[in-house]
Fold this protein.
Amino acid sequence: MMAVCAQRPTTTGEQAVAATRRWGAVVALVAASGLPAAAAEPPLMCFGNEPSWSLALDRPGAARLTLGDGTETAYRGSDTRLEPLRERVWRGNRDGGADLVAFLREADCSDGMSDVMHPVVVRVSVDSGRVLAGCCRVVAAAAAPAAASAIEGPVWRLTRLRGLDEKALAAVADGATVRFEQGQLQGFGGCNRMAGSYTIDGGRLTIGPLAGTMMACPAPAMAVESAFTKALAGTLHFRVDDGSLTLAPEPNGEPALVFAATAPPRLEGVAWEVTGYNNGRQAVVSPLTGTVLTVTFENGAIVGNAGCNSFRAAYTRDGDRLTVGPAAATRKQCKSDVMKQEQEFLAAIESATTWGVDHGMLDLHRGDGERVLHARPAGKP
């Protein structure tokens, strides 16, 4: 269950419309007293559960609201930003004059379904008087291809961090890593995983707000992670030379962070045991107790166990890009909840478009950046 979730007002229809009009008046007041939104506002994907919905704010002047029944509505509108509150308001309408208003506040937001904290809290009002509440994540922005090619692809392991004792860094068993790919950053700080967006302009790397898990670890790891995430922020100047990546606040200045490229990740030939999969309702969930979900990539085919039946699906790979065909499964019948899990699991695999391996864990994602599957090598804790 989400801490903040979609809800229907308990008022009558007339009261709901009046409430929406009052909210619209508030938006107008905020718009009058606020500032125009910054041109570089990050693209967002907002979502909520029970009922499932999503709002894409990934293109200037446009929004797409999708409800759980698959209904999609496009809106045209604009932002107003109220900087003292770290909040912006997006307001738009579709043909016929129907309005949509979204309040977007920069604050940690739990989706209630995973341990990831998202960087934006959202409230959405539509013309029917319905109110939706949830979280937003930053989605990938396009990077300049020529400059990006030098930094993207490898998993970079942190070897030096200005102001941090190298012995402290070496004491963190799993180390700290970061990977840049198609405008999306994935990293590990020594205790928690992080994700966010970035852009590249020549030799400048600009990193957007980072979201991440919120585990607590022993002091050495937390000290490294705190220093790492503080340094990995804002605009940095990068240089790649002979398998080494340096990031510095100033051009040709003293490096704040130094990384070494690690060995390429391996997808094929490993039996992966699934620890989480996307249930199709904007949530990554663990397999049901008593069931084991597995996947193995080999010779152009994904084979494994879906909890009740074994399955097979064709795939092709180009770098970290995947194209997965329809999955065919055997026809054994199990309990209804197991069969529902199987259906959701196979649908998740079919939707995968990218893959990566981070600290030995397999990560599959969809084209919009949403996680599809997380898995570890079979037999490992």
Observations:
- Residues 13-137 form one domain.
- The mean pLDDT is 82.
- Residues 13-33 form the longest helix (21 residues).
- Residues 118 and 211 are 5 Å apart (CA to CA).
